Amino acid sequence: MKTIIVEDRAEAEIKNAFFWYLERKESIALNFYESVAKAMNRIFTSPKIGNPLTPRLRKIPVEKFPYNMVYREDLEVIYIVALSHHKRKPEHWHDNS
């Protein structure tokens, strides 16, 4: 069974988004957290589910929120590379993975 590792950059993006929603309304922040967890579970159970971005990167939407979870799969590990907002440029993760 594979392991999921959330890279530092992705972890920071998830936390920043969570706290942004928390400042607005706690229930929205909790829904965001749940949607992120569901996206990670979908990746874990079916790593090929995401749409290819590059030969190594895939993305899946975070349900109910304007984000994609970007990840790559190696033999034994799935790396969560970024949480990408639909309206922001992706170059912060695109060139490095």
What's the quick description here?
The chain has helices at 8-24, 26-45, 91-94; strands at residues 3-6, 51-52, 57-62, 67-73, 77-85. With 97 residues, the protein is of the alpha+beta class.
What is the topological layout?
Blueprint: E1 3-6, H1 8-24, H2 26-45, E2 51-52, E3 57-62, E4 67-73, E5 77-85, H3 91-94
Parallel strand pairs: 1-5
Antiparallel strand pairs: 2-3, 3-4, 4-5
Account of the 3D structure:
- The protein contains three helices and five strands.
- With 97 residues, the protein is α+β, with helices and mostly antiparallel strands.
- It has one domain: YaeB-like fold (2-Layer Sandwich), CATH 3.30.2310.20.
- A five-stranded mixed β-sheet has the order 1-5-4-3-2.
- A hairpin with a 4-residue loop joins strand 2 and strand 3.
- The longest helix is centred in the middle third of the chain and has 20 residues.
- The mean pLDDT is 92.
- Overall average residue pLDDT: 92
Biggest sheet details? 5 strands, mixed
Sequence of secondary-structure elements: EHHEEEEH
Report Rg: 13 Å
Structural class: alpha+beta
Helix content: 40-55%
Tally of discrete structural domains? 1
Low-confidence stretches at least 5 residues in length (pLDDT < 50)? none
General form:
globular
The fold-level CATH name is YaeB-like fold
CATH C-level class is: Alpha Beta
Number of helices: 3
Question: What is the beta-strand fraction?
Answer: 25-35%
| CATH architecture descriptor text | 2-Layer Sandwich
Number of strands: 5
CATH homologous superfamily descriptor: RelE-like
End-to-end distance, in Å?
23 Å
* Strand ordering within the main sheet: 1-5-4-3-2
